[in-house]
Amino acid sequence: MANFYTDNSDLRHHLTHPLMQRIVALKERNYADARKYDYAPSNFEDAMDSYEKVLEIAGEICGEIVAPNAEDVDHEGPRVVDGHVEYASGTVRNLDALVKAGLMGISLPRRYDGLNFSLVPYIMAADMVSRADAGFVNIWGLQDCAETIYEFANEEQKQRYLPRVCAGETMAMDLTEPDAGSDLQSVMLKATYSETDGCWYLNGVKRFITNGDGHIALVLARSEEGTKDGRGLSMFIYDRANGGVTVRRIENKMGIKGSPTCELVFRNAKAELCGERKLGLIKYVMALMNGARLGIAAQSVGISEAAYREALSYDRDRRQFGKAIIEFSAVAEMLSLMKAKLDASRSLLYETTRFVDMYKIYEDISKERKLEKEERDEMKRYQKQADAFTPLSKGMGSEFCNQNAYDCIQIHGGSGFMKDYACERIYRDARITSIYEGTTQLQVVAAIRHVTTGTFLNMMHFYEEQPVSDELQPLRARLKELTALYETTVKNVTETKESEYIDFHARRMVEMAGHIIMSHLLILDTQRNASFRASAEVYLRYAEAEVHKNAAYIEAFDVNDMAYYRRN
Question: What is the DSSP string of 466-510?
Answer without folding.
Answer: S---GGGHHHHHHHHHHHHHHHHHHHHHHTT--HHHHHHTHHHHH
